[in-house]
Amino acid sequence: MNVTEICKRPAVTILQTEELGAAARLMRERHIGYLVVVEPHLPGSFRPTGVLTDRDIVVAVVARGEDPRQLRVGDVMTRQPTVVEESKSLSYALEQMRRIGVRRVPVVGALGELTGVLSLDDVLDTLARDLHGVASSIRSELHMEAALRP
Asked: Which positions ≥6 away from 122 have C-beta within 8 Å?
């Protein structure tokens, strides 16, 4: 299984020049805690230049007593995020996420354009569905066995 089969599309994005308050409002409106910070790339596409999480806002702004009205996304975001190409295997993506200690990564196409976001939540949902399918197969086999050989 590769990353493109699981990642969420489209990613929710913001520009680094936007006010931090706008980022917080976007997170609230979309019920998410992760934005991909982008800049124009190829015609009609964007490339990730950073990521911003709700935790970033809490730790870097609120906990330090900073005034969020005076800050831009670029002041708080994590720059040069690790990205995963959509053609990579899920195991490769999980290894990269484990290595850097994150729950989400931007997913990019072959030319570096943003195509989605892969989260551990999405991976767990997929694995749970797959395991449910395996368990159902076992139950079906047992029912068939019982019906054929009473």
From this structure: 6, 7, 8
- Helices H / strands E in the chain, number of each: 5, 7
d(CA 79, CA 106): 12
Q: Is 2 helix (H, G, I), strand (E, B) or coil?
A: strand
The model's pTM is 0.84
Measured in whole angstroms, the distance separating CA 34 from the mean position of its chain's CA atoms is: 8
- Please, where are the H alpha helices in 31-119? 54-57, 73-76, 90-100
Give the rounded distance of the alpha carbon of 36 from its chain centre: 9
Rounded Cα distance between 49 and 78, Å, is 9
pLDDT in tens, 90-148: 999 999 999 999 999 999 999 999 999 999 998 988 888 766 666 666 666 666 666 66
